[in-house]
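Aim 2 progress update. The chain analyzed this quarter is reproduced below.
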Amino acid sequence: MKNTEFPRKMNIYDTKHQTPNTKHQTPNTEHQTQYSHQMIYNLDKINEMADGDEDFINSVISVFLEEVPQDLEDLEAALNQKDHEQAYQLAHKIKPNVDLLGMEQTREAALEIETLGKQGADISEMEKIFQMLKKDIYQVVGELKKDFHL
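Predicted structure tokens:
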């Protein structure tokens, strides 16, 4: 197989949050969602692991799209039930999946929920972090579906 680089998605805004730096964006990303933080996804880790194997990349993306939204729903249910142990386990499961897609801020949020769950911390604090986690993951799910025509 030929060594094909898949899209690396990033929204990087200057310090005034006015002009996106589109240097690393795929051609079909004409719309921009202005965010107060850097966020979308990038496929550097997957591209490195795949070594040009497009089927592998598509498989990783498909697994992400199938598993992570369900894990997110289950995490929300665990938080609603104030189940610290289940919240800990689900955040732990989500963390490597978002890390694989270069979603550093989202990985940090999952790690924080994981840590708070393990400590039996205040659920309301975990729920605040969860809202950001949920927003970021659903944004990336939408972008992946669009970019990979799924």
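The two ends are 22 Å apart (CA to CA). Residues 1-39 have pLDDT under 50 and may be disordered. These observations will guide the mutagenesis experiments scheduled for the next reporting period.
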